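Let us begin with a simple case.
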Amino acid sequence: MSVDLSFAPGLPAVLIALAALLGGAAWFADAYRALRVRRAHHGLCARALDALGEGLVRVRGRVALAGPLFSPLGGRPCAGFVLEAHGVDVPVRGRVREFRAFELREGAHAARVEAAHGEWALPVTWERTFAPGEALGANVEALLDAHPELAWLRRRGGALRLVERALHHRDAVQVIAHAEYAEAAFHAAGYQQELRTGTDGAVVTHAFGAGAPAVPACDWRLSDPDDLPMQVLAEGAPASAACVPAAARTWGVALGPLLSLAGLLVLARLAGAVMVVR
């Protein structure tokens, strides 16, 4: 009795089959996410804050800062920035990102944008090439030193190219997010009771709101839509930063499972060959 060893398993074949199995699954996951984004954004047009409704929206307005943050190169107040750095004579680059929540305002209407972890498309607001040994400033140096590859670029002493992208106060912007109405637009008047920590245990009552002016709050809250990231699109951002994935990116919904199935079949064939050899 002869044994057919024409399909004897080898390490390269096993690795290729495993790569196909895992790669197909990852391809499917990315394609499915792109398909969901395309479906969610289909027919979505920019609205004003006074015409907003609950659910997934694309709303326009101007930035109002909710906290102190300054762009690293321009030094202007901003809601977020991306600092890109690369060596002039070496192919090493990196970026520093910092985003904060901000308010979107239009007339008498406002929305709080919880966009600290969303996707931001920002225009170039400042760029400069620093000569070898030229001082960058304490703030910029601290940002670069927090990232190993950028710290290496700074310490090597060569020319350094820095590009800043920032969303400044009063910039026009569009936000794609899930909108929900804020229940209370004003702080209500009332009373607050506190129990003293002293030995007498007396209750102290403080009145608040009766003689104080009402503090306006945001009408809307904008946050991440389900498990998709919020998108902040600044005016003047490059066209390549389009928020809707290309249709070709969704092909993996069909091709990803086929690739995984092919890898699984090859692994099964290899396992069968091992059994025959034994």
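The second case is a distinct protein. As before, the sequence precedes its structure tokens.
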Amino acid sequence: MVSEALLIILAGVCGYLIYRLVYIQKGLSLIVELLRAYLGGDLKKRLYLEREDKLQEIGSLLNALAELCEKKTHEATWKGYSLKAVLEGLPDAIALLGPDERVHMANPAFLNLVDIPEGDVLERPITEVLNLPEVSRVLESARAEGQLKAEVFYDDERQKHFRVLVCPIEMSSKESPVVLLLHDISETKRTEQIRRDFVANVSQELKTAIAAIKSYAETMPEGALE
């Protein structure tokens, strides 16, 4: 009787262990399948286990992680669209450069400035895209000093003057990507030149007139003014 009872107990324990092993194996398979889905970009997949144990807790944590990642992805996508809309609407030429000074992003104003299709601009060194020898010097100084402003002359057919702003995204890192902004000040420069030329011409004419009056006064007979 004792032997039969022990066999029954042993059989029950073995059955329970086999059931648990099958359950654990099935649960682990579902978790592996879930993780593969997440790695594949499917963050909507969820895992729900009936038993309240560690596997069910792991499943709940993975579900919560997926929901958080999905939320962050939506936020990043929305911010990306918003940033793109802002950059596309700006009149200034803007480009995002990596640590290797290759162009990773450029707005329409920048593409219009360099007159090169976007597909031929991205991932190319900025010195190959923009005919501005001063760019490398400005970028190097900006990485060493932080944000930097400068004025440069773009010597192409359009003879453009730009105020350049270079701003590293991470001020503490010399390997940080940088934002390059070029603000067209050509019209301002032309206006300043016209003003300088006008002042110079007026000054010269005044000098000429004064000299003529002085010369005439000196040659007049004495007493003619009386």
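The chain has a mean pLDDT of 74. Helices lie at 2-39, 54-89, 108-114, 118-121, 126-129, 134-145, 186-219.
Keep these points in mind for the review questions at the end of the chapter.
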